[in-house]
Amino acid sequence: MARPRFLVFQLFFRSSRVQKKRAFLTIAAIAWGTLALILLLAFGEGLGLSLGKAWAGMGTDIAVIWPGETTVPWKGLPAGRAIRPRIDDIRTIRERVPGLVGVSGEIIRWGTNFTHGDKTVNAPVKGVGTIWGQLRNQIPSPGGRFLNPLDDAQRRRVVFLGTDLAKDLFGDEDPIGGSILIDKVPYTVVGVLIEKMMFGNYSGMDANHAIIPIRTLYAQYGSDRLSVLVLKPEHRDGMKAALAGVAQVLSAKYGFDPGDERVLGTWDTVESGKIRDNFMLGIKLFLSIIGVLTLTVGGIGVANIMYAVVKERTREIGVKMALGARSHWVTGPIVLEGLTYTLLGGVAGLLVATILVYLLSLIPTGDNMALKALGKPTLSPAIAATAAGVLGIIGLLAGYFPARRAASVDPAETLRYE
Amino acid sequence: MKLPLAMTTDETIIEMAAIRKVYDTGKIKVEALRGIDLDISKGEFVAIVGPSGSGKSTLMNLIGCLDTPTSGTYRLTGQLVAGMNKDALATVRNRRVGFIFQNFNLLPQISAYENVEMPMLFGGVPRRERRRRIEELMERVGLADRMEHKPTELSGGQMQRVAVARALAMDPDILLADEPTGNLDTSSGGDIMGLFQDLWEQGGTMLVITHDAALARRAARQVEIQDGLITRDTGRPEAGSTAPG
């Protein structure tokens, strides 16, 4: 005789029901735990996304190099010499170091006067290579553009303005196509940076400075010594080799020990990104642990109610055993019941969490940096999968232990007396 | 029309030899059965009588495979019960034994129909066959019109008749009834005993545990237990009977 395939389900539906109020409270506890878990994960996700975006604001997988001074003697040259690469060294690096998306020099002049109409603002100006825009995520707002190779080759007096600087100079006026004076020399504004979050910076926020072609800057100010070099390898794993290559090229030209780490101060964002990722992972783990613990409390509630159920149904269980129920036909429906309460609560919690996350996304962040950095809580398939997995495990455990007690019911004992 | 004893065949349903059952509660050991020899053949109607504490419930549990003896051998329809695991015992209970309890032990949340169906679910009887059999059984116990009633909507006598139908569901080799009329009024109790009588006459093997002497007299064979030993067996005069049944 074939066993009915869904016997456990049939038995589940024929088990006596728990009190509605108790079931409701248990489900509510699970819903609450699920809500807590999902909201915490969603906040973690939102924070991670927003931080990731903000860190990418400076550029992704780039390295920033500051030329410094030698600290060890090299081939008869004393320590303490300043190493100052020039604009033309960029071409040499490009030619000699393989595997680069690009490398750009950057000359920074602090305290430059910007004038538009009767308004004068003091801000840094940076002369950069054209590739710099790509390396440093300089996205122009609609209507404008970043600098192009012709600008640099022809030493055009064109400027790409940071968001805030443009606002300071032009107010509500459209800056694109407008003209400004940079230290009394006229420039045409070709683009304005879009508004962006930016956490890392090495010479002020991009929003507060102006970008001009590096050769234009050289022509105006007469210095071709680079303040900073920015480079990006084709693959993040190529960063170490790329940095070593740059050190090799510059060491050959300027005479310093390529192993002298103080000559070229380096900010490798691949490396710092790893630390950041670990940090984010830590935060997310912390949030998940709190969420899982809250949910576990709900799970203990389910286990509790199921223990009570087993106790109440001892006779029912004994009768079924006397009639020939095998252990798993007794335990199965109980596990199923625990799982049902858990999953019902889980679905309720997920629904409420989804609604809350949607409502939270409607709150405008405005100019509040803290709110911007916190980001919007975000639901993702990974979060749903995590919540479902945790719920499943908790539900199974909450049913399993009471079910084990049910299986240990001695039918002879329960049936003997009233 | 009665066919007393004529239905008895040589086919042995219950074979118990030197059965002992000791309850070990840690501090004290209680010897509930102290060496029981009992054979019951197919078609017998046996009443086990004895005062409370005599060991008759323990004996019923052992016969019904709800429990296993401490020592001795027990064969149920030739099958050795000792050493079976819980699930194997569950299968034996399902196929071989039909239980009827003093307090009916129907599941209160499901209908009479579903109560009778329960052992057949465990036995893997197909749905259509289950329906046919339940209808037949409910007809037989006179409750064909009460199938969808919950136990709480039935009288005591009706509940016990549902329990009888449930006990018969898997067509067991033996019906075990533990004080089946203990919770019933005289009239309902009489009905149930009448039902047992009918079942026996149709070839069933019945074992009733009772302390009701009037009830016991309706059985063809009486076995009396005292202090864990059989003191009288009208079917086995050699087992130390003091008076004929």
Compact description:
Chain A has helices at 7-13, 20-56, 89-96, 132-135, 149-153, 163-170, 214-221, 239-254, 269-312, 314-322, 327-361, 369-374, 381-407, 411-416; strands at residues 63-67, 100-116, 119-128, 158-161, 179-182, 185-192, 210-213, 228-233, 264-268.
Question: What would the keywords be for this entry?
Answer:
heterodimer; A: 418 residues; alpha+beta; 3 domains; 6-stranded mixed barrel; 14 helices; 53% helix; elongated; B: 245 residues; alpha/beta; Rossmann fold; 6-stranded mixed β-sheet; 4-stranded antiparallel β-sheet; 26% strand; globular; disordered C terminus
Order of adjacent strands in the largest pleated sheet of chain A: 2-3-7-4-6-5
Largest sheet of chain B: 6 strands, mixed
Shape of chain A: elongated
Distance between the termini of chain A: 35 Å
The percentage of residues in β strands of chain B lies in 25-35%
Order of helices and strands of chain A: HHEHEEHHEHEEEHEHEHHHHHH
Label the CATH architecture of chain B. 3-Layer(aba) Sandwich
Number of domains of chain B: 1
Overall description:
The complex is a heterodimer of chains A (418) and B (245). Chain A has helices at residues 7-13, 20-56, 89-96, 132-135, 149-153, 163-170, 214-221, 239-254, 269-312, 314-322, 327-361, 369-374, 381-407, 411-416, and strands spanning 63-67, 100-116, 119-128, 158-161, 179-182, 185-192, 210-213, 228-233, 264-268. With 418 residues, chain A is α+β, with helices and mostly antiparallel strands. Chain A has three domains: 7-56 and 274-416, no CATH class; 69-99 and 235-262, no CATH class; 100-233, no CATH class. In chain A, strands 2-3-7-4-6-5 form a six-stranded mixed barrel. In chain A, strand 5 (179-182) and strand 6 (185-192) form a beta hairpin. In chain A, helix 9 packs across helix 10 and helix 9 (269-312) packs across helix 11 (327-361). Chain B has 245 residues and is an alpha/beta fold. Chain B contains seven helices and ten strands. The relative contact order of chain B is 0.19. The longest helix of chain B has 16 residues, at 186-201. A six-stranded mixed beta sheet of chain B has the order 6-7-8-3-9-10, with helices on both faces. In chain B, strands 2-1-4-5 form a four-stranded antiparallel beta sheet, covered by helices on one side. In chain B, helix 3 packs parallel to helix 5 (156-168), helix 4 crosses helix 5 (156-168) and helix 5 (156-168) packs parallel to helix 6. The interface between A and B is medium-sized, with 30 and 33 residues.
